[in-house]
Every structure is written in structure tokens, then in C-alpha cells.
Amino acid sequence: MKTVQYVRAAIAASLLASLGAGAAFAQPLTGTAAPPAYKFSTPMPPGVLSPDTVESRIGTLHFLGGVPDQDSTAKIYDNLDFQRAVQAYLLALPVVNQMANRAGTLSVGPANTTVPIWEQMVDSRTVELTANDNTPYTWFWIDLRNGPLVLEAPPKVLGTVNDIWYHWAGDIGFTGPDHGQGGKFLFLPPGYKGDVPAGYHVVRPGSLSVWVVWRSFVVDGTPAPGVDLVKKFTRVYPLGQTGAPPQMNFVDMSTKPFNMVGPADFGFWELLNEAVQTEPTEAIDATTLGFWASVGIQKGKPFAPDARMKKILTEAAAVGDATGRTLGYRNREKEALFFDDRNWKRPFIGGYKFEWQPGVANLTGSAMYFFMATGVTPAMDTQIIGEGSTYPWTATDADNNPLDGGKSYKLHLPPHIPVKTFWSVIVYDAQTRSMVQTDQRFPSVSSQNKSVQTNADGSVDVYFGPKAPAGHESNWVETTPGKSWFTILRLYGPLEPWFKQEWRPDNIVLMP
Question: Are 414 and 506 in contact (CB under 8 A)?
Fold first, then answer.
């Protein structure tokens, strides 16, 4: 014991002598000396050394002098690969969302010439993330692999352009540079270095596959005038083409069974790999590409996971999907709530760029949105009175319980609903994030419907359940026992009382 004390004293004296006046700036090393106490053994502060046995959520880990044994090594790598795979899944939700959208759309016909259009609005047969049934959609993909393309857009539409990575590239229509007058938009491939002629609204997406979507509007109760304008003016053709542009194939998707929602199994990774292999990835940050590479998805290399890794990726997809559902339906961020006393949540946490602050990604906001929805544009996040739209939504009742399709509920909208254009309440299946499929073609209540009943004070009650309440059939949306649902309250052209929070929709309440 005296020998050990002598060695420690000698070490301390040696350190003080060598440091001299600078000793005041040295880190004091206290604690038990690393055994055995050799002449140059240094005391280690707590937390530096690993114990021989570590109890953890992945089991008991064993170390020999800090080196894991073989069994512990296998556990640690399985856990690391699984953790990275779950994060890779959440980071890939936007692009896989788009890849499924693209695959479904191109099943109708080739890019550049095929234009699906819901002439009678989207109904519950279309399985797509939170589409609306209020306005006719025009929804198509263009491909820039053969060079720049010109899109002639119609007047009187509200639309946006997103690339395959779900980055916003520009708007078309009322919120775009054409201001709803229509015009020519020039789409340039990533990295394009050629001349850019005048006379076009230029769009520079971050991918070769580009999604264009817009809505036309109902006029005097009919969508026909807006649909006619779309068919009359929409054209896509190569820059510099002479002669008549190619004929567009407009396909009416109304009433057709149609799916654009992606998988949450191993097929998720195959869609991600297809995007990485076929699209330029310069628009993606290095950390995201690193997560994808860590699970075997890297440009120019085959995606061929072995049995072990395929099992991990399949489980990670299931946990990633569960995480998306939790972030969506049970989001815990205070910033997600519109009001401090209501369950209504924002679609964008951190704005349409999903940021905690400029340059700092809000990973929760991004994963939540792309699990639930499609379409990114600043117009959906505008704070301008009477412009754009807002989308408060909820998946729980006043007691914070999931909305049960076998029970009956009521939503009270106070008087003077603050909209310049119109409002709607649409019900979605919590499984598919698409409109509930019941005996109602359009599962919604909207101010566009003149039969909707208004209370004497100007308020509106909306009812949900498997059976319509007597006398309130026009204000009722049918739900299905055994399923859960959520709803979006869309306010088109929100007015000042909304932004000042002077008008607030009630929570959804369970009826006796």
C-alpha cells in the first residue's frame, strides 16, 4: 500500500515540476489510477473507461479492457445497422413518397405526353396522401433526360412544381410568376449550362423527373370551365421544337380505382435505390446520402443486402412506418399545435422548408409531413390575409383519444368561419392517409355544398360516424367501424380572425 502511495506522490510531484507556472491551466486528473499502478499510470476521471460488463437495451455487453467480445460485437453492429436504417427510412420518406406517386402516374401513360386529370374531382377511389375533393386536380410528370422542356400552362390554376426529392422548384398559376394568366415555363435539367432564351418562366429542379400539379376551380357549381382551360392550353415539348407541339393525352381519372401510396416494407428500399441510381443526387446533403449508403444504397453500386441485412431493413421499415404514424398522429412538439387549448395541428413544423432555424433541419416536421401529405410550396404556408390556404388537422378527439370509425362525433365550427373563398372538412383513413372508403363518394362537408346546414348564429356542426344523425344528413361524413380516421379542415383564403386566433374550431367531441 505504501508503495502505491509513494508512486502516486512521485507522479504528482513530477507533473507539478514539469508544468511549473502553467500548472494552473492543466486539467486536474483525479480518480483511481489505471491498475496496476505502474510508474506512468495516470488517474482517469469517471466516464473515460468502459466497465467489463454493460447492461443496455440491446442486452448485456462484455468487454475485455474496452474491447467487445464477439457476441457483443454482433449485437452492437446489428443495433447500429438498425438505428441507421430507421433514420435512413425517415430521411427517405419524401423521395419514396414521390417515387410511388411517379410509378402510379406513369402507369397511366408515359411522361411528357400523359396528363391525368380528375375532371369531377378526386373521390375516395383514388388512394393518395390527403388529396382534396374540392377542386379538379391536374397531376403529371415530365422527364428532362433528353434536355430542356417547355410547359405551356393554362390560366386560372393554382399549382406547384416539386422534384423527385420533394424540393420545391417553383409555382404555377395564381401564386406563380404568371399570376394566374398562364404562360410558358422552361424546365432546365440539373447542371444545365446552355443558353437560356428570354420569354420563359425558368424552373431549375434538382432532378430529371419532375412533378407538376395544379388545381383548377369550380365555377357556378361545375368544374367544366376550369377543366376545359387545362385541356385547351396545356402543352409540353422540347425547347426549340418547330412545328406543332405533340398532342397531349388527357386521362380522366375520376371514379377510377388508383393508388399512389408507397410501401412500408422491403419494397420501400427498392424504390429509394431506384431514385438514387437514376437521378442526380447533388441536391441531397452529405449526411442523408451517408445514411442511405450505410444501409447499402449508393450511386453506381448494386443494392444487394445479405439475409441478415435484408431482415434488418425489413424490420427498420416497419419501425420507420410506426415512427411516421407516431410523429403524424401523436406529435409531441408544441410547435405542431395551432392553439394552446385545441388538438388542431399544423401541416408544416418549421415552415415549408422544415427548419428549426435557417440551416437547421427539423427532422420531425419533415418526416411527419411526408408520411401524411403531398405537395410542397410556400403558398401552403403563407401568412397573407385572404391568400393561399391553411390546413389545420387532427387525429384525436377532445380527450386525446384516436377517432374511432365505429363511434359518432361532432365538430362545432363557430360563427363567421374566416375564409375568403370556401372551407371544407374531409375525412381520411388513418391507415392509407387517403379518403375513407364508404358509401359516400366524397367523404366531406364543405361550404361549396349549398345543402350544408348552418345554425341560427352562423355556426356549423359537422357530424362523423357509421350512421347519419337524423335531420343532419347533409352535414355528416360516414366512417367505418374497426377503422380509425383523421380530418383536415381546409380554409381557402383565410382571413384576419384566423391569423389572430380570434376564431378557433372546437375540438372534435364524442357524442353520447
Answer: yes
Residues facing residue 219 across a β-bridge: 222
Residue 218 lies in a domain: yes
pLDDT at 392 over 80: yes
Whether 144 contacts 151, CB under 8 Å: no
Residue 86 placed within a domain:
no
pLDDT of residue 34: 61
**How many structural domains does the chain have?**
3
* Angstrom distance (rounded) from CA 15 to CA 13: 5
Question: Considering the domain boundaries, does residue 468 fall inside one?
Answer: yes
**In the chain, what's the furthest Cα-to-Cα distance?**
101
First to last CA, the chain: 78
pLDDT at 13: 43
Whole-angstrom Cα distance, residue 19 to residue 227? 83
Higher pLDDT, 306 or 383: 306
What residues are paired with 184 via a beta bridge? Answer: 152
- Number of DSSP helices (H) and strands (E) in the chain, helices first: 8, 27
Residue-wise pLDDT for 184-204, tens only, equals 999 999 999 999 999 999 999
* 351-360 tens-digit pLDDT: 999 999 999 9
pLDDT at 111 over 60: yes
By residue range, what is the domain housing residue 53? 2-70
Q: Do 364 and 501 share a structural domain?
A: yes
Same domain for 248 and 390?
no
Three-state secondary structure readout of 272-288: HHHHHHHCCCCCCCHHH
- CATH of residue 416's domain is 2.60.120.600
Buried b / exposed e over 189-204, threshold 16 CB at 10 Å, is: bbeeeeeeeeebbebe
DSSP string, 245-269: PPPPEEEE-TT--EE-PPPSSTHHH
Residues 229 and 126 in one domain: yes
